[in-house]
Amino acid sequence: MQNMLTISAGELSLQRFPVRKSEDLQAWDNADWLVLEELFAQARLDLSRQRLLVVNDPFASLVCGLQQVGVPAQQLCLWSDSYLSRLAMQHNCQLNSLPPVEFIDAVQTPQGHFDLVLMRLPKSHSLLRDQVARLKPHLRAGAKVIIPVMVKHLDKSLYELLEHLLGPLTTSLARKKARLIYAQPRSAATEVQSITNSWHYDGLQLQHYSGVYGRKRLDEGSQFLLENWPQGEFQCVLDLGCGNGILSLQAARNWPAAKVTGIDESYMAVASAQRNSELNDLHRQCHFQVGNCLDDVPDDSADLVLCNPPFHQQKVVGDHIAMAMFKGAARVLQVQGELWVVGNRHLGYHSKLKRWFKRVEQQGKHKKFVLLRCRY
User: Fold this and answer.
1) CATH code for position 20
2) Contacts for 174 with CB less than 8 Å, ≥ 6 apart
3) Residue 51 lies in a domain
4) Could you tell me if 62 and 118 are in contact, meaning their C-beta atoms sit under 8 angstroms apart?
5) Using CA of residue 37, residue 39, residue 41, residue 47, what is the dihedral sign?
6) Structural domain span for residue 57
7) What's the whole-model pTM score?
8) pLDDT tens for residues 170-218?
9) What is the 3-state secondary structure (H, E, C) of 116-151?
């Protein structure tokens, strides 16, 4: 399903990604609309002569809208931790007969100097701090940062954090429950490295980039799976949504002859997992890659899939990503293969997994999580 973003500069057809036939959610919000209207109204600024950076644009509504407003593609960069955002940018640019723009993954730092930055707020304060700190040395003197935000997502503590990171702020009037935050931060003198955290679990040393879930401690779902680990011998293990790589590392330790592949749509997660495999001398056995679920994995190629799936995309709660993971697992597993899934009890994975697997058995007991072993 396409939906139209109508701005003064014209109309854009936009789709959420991955594309679904029955999609009922739009690929933009009123904060996107508001900032594009504001920039179109200020066309006298001659945006075509400025270098613009778009940060954390999930479905490329800003990237496409800026081109519609008159910014040449070669003057635009998109900086994001999401592989799906990269695919969405390519898809929606093509959908609107616009050229794709340069994409910079969040492990890398955009090289300036930039005149204007449009930043959608990331999923974590840690990633926000990291992005702002690394961005400042690449701002031109007098550069502006505009943050489009829905009013319901802007509380006092977040505003104070933004003020601490960016300096004095001003805001627009609210329109359609959206608001723009303006900053003109001082450019920092030196570039900083991406923030990492370090901790240990069961003899493993773990380091994390700022945007990775569970970067300070092991999440409960993964711990429950580790405490109820699959028994048997496996030769080809896939860790789907690998995060920091903890399940991949445990698989490599448990089955020294197995090939272990971790897949995640987060560039920072994949980089963290790769770093952790090297820190623990398991890198010869483990391979990590960015991807959209199991799209790039051949049929009948694995005998074990481990999965701790997300239950939201951006700020929208839903199980469509998990369903795509389960469907992909059924395709890539060999006849005697197994899928092990951990998730919150209320998500009802037990019945949903029976679309693809005849035998779905609960493993272990937990008041919050359920662990399911799935076989043909």
Assistant:
1) 3.40.50.150
2) 151
3) yes
4) yes
5) negative
6) 3-183
7) 0.94
8) 999 999 999 999 999 988 877 777 877 899 999 999 999 998 987 778 9
9) EEEECCCCCHHHHHHHHHHHHHHEEEEEEEEEEEEH
